[in-house]
Amino acid sequence: MIEQYRDLVDQLVEVGRDAAGRGLVIASAGNLSARRPGTDAFVVTAAGTWFDRLAAGGQFSLLGLDGTIRDGNPRPSSEWKLHARTYALRPDVTCVIHLHPQVAVLVDALGHEVRLVNLDHVAYLGRVARVPFLPNGSDELAEAAARASIDSNAMILAHHGCSTLGDSVEMAYRRALNLEQAAENTFRCLQVGRTDLTFPEEWLPSVRGA
Ligand SMILES: [Zn+2]
Fold first, then answer.
1. If both were cysteines, with which of 34, 42, 207, 208 could 95 make a disulfide (CB 3.0 to 4.6 Å apart)?
2. Beta strands 128-131 and 154-157: pairing type?
3. CA of 77: how far to CAs of 10, 47, 115, in Å?
4. HSE-up (13 A, CA, CB side) for residue 182
5. pTM
6. Distance 160 CA to ligand 1 centre (A)
7. What is the three-class DSSP state of 205?
């Protein structure tokens, strides 16, 4: 059954390899998932998988939104609920990417919001939500992230990582990359003492609609 998800798994393998290469996760941190539009099943990375070793095979589980294991690796990521709850609340979302990007987490932990500096940040991120720290793998974290997803496709999970969503694997990953770049820009602003930098207000509506 999981063979029918080969195209999505291949895309996630590629995201994993790229994200590990960029240092957006280290060791076995983070997890990736995808599904077909409007369905109640999704493929998710298995527990303990390293993003740069996903191509080895057997690294994905096929789950129902209720957590039932349908095929593939019998030990899904302990954070599978983070994905399942968001899919349940956002029928349009077909990919959830959960990374541990260090600059986004650090900027948030320092008490600053991530600033949207360039037009890609504004167009792809729109609004960056924040979820307070809750234990990883918990129902509470999964529920809080799902609630945040109602009006945001990118969120920082405090002292932990991020979750970005999309209607394709490419779009969810594009958002993850833009989130970390915006955070790196924000950190540089802080280094030169700027905490007020914003995208030109008068252009926000047209760029958001782009
Ligand atoms: Zn995590």
1. 34
2. parallel
3. 18, 4, 31
4. 30
5. 0.96
6. 6
7. helix
User: Ligand 1 centre from 120 Cα, in Å?
Assistant: 25
CA torsion sign for 116, 24, 164, 103 is negative
Q: Ligand 1: distance of its center to the CA of 163 in Å?
A: 9
Distance 25 CA to ligand 1 centre (A): 9
Give distance in angstroms: CA of 2 to centre of ligand 1.
Answer: 24
> Beta 95-99 vs 31-34: how paired, if at all?
antiparallel
Q: Quick one: average pLDDT of 39-52?
A: 97
Q: Are 93 and 175 in contact (CB under 8 A)?
A: no
Query: Quick one: pLDDT at residue 56?
Result: 84
Of residues 58 and 209, more confidently modeled: 58
Distance of alpha carbon 2 from alpha carbon 63, whole angstroms? 10
CA 149 to ligand 1 centroid distance, Å:
17
Length of the chain: 210
At position 198, the amino acid (one-letter code) is T
Q: What is the 70 CA–ligand 1 centroid distance (Å)? A: 23
CA-to-CA dists, residue 47 to 35, 97, 132, angstroms: 18, 15, 24
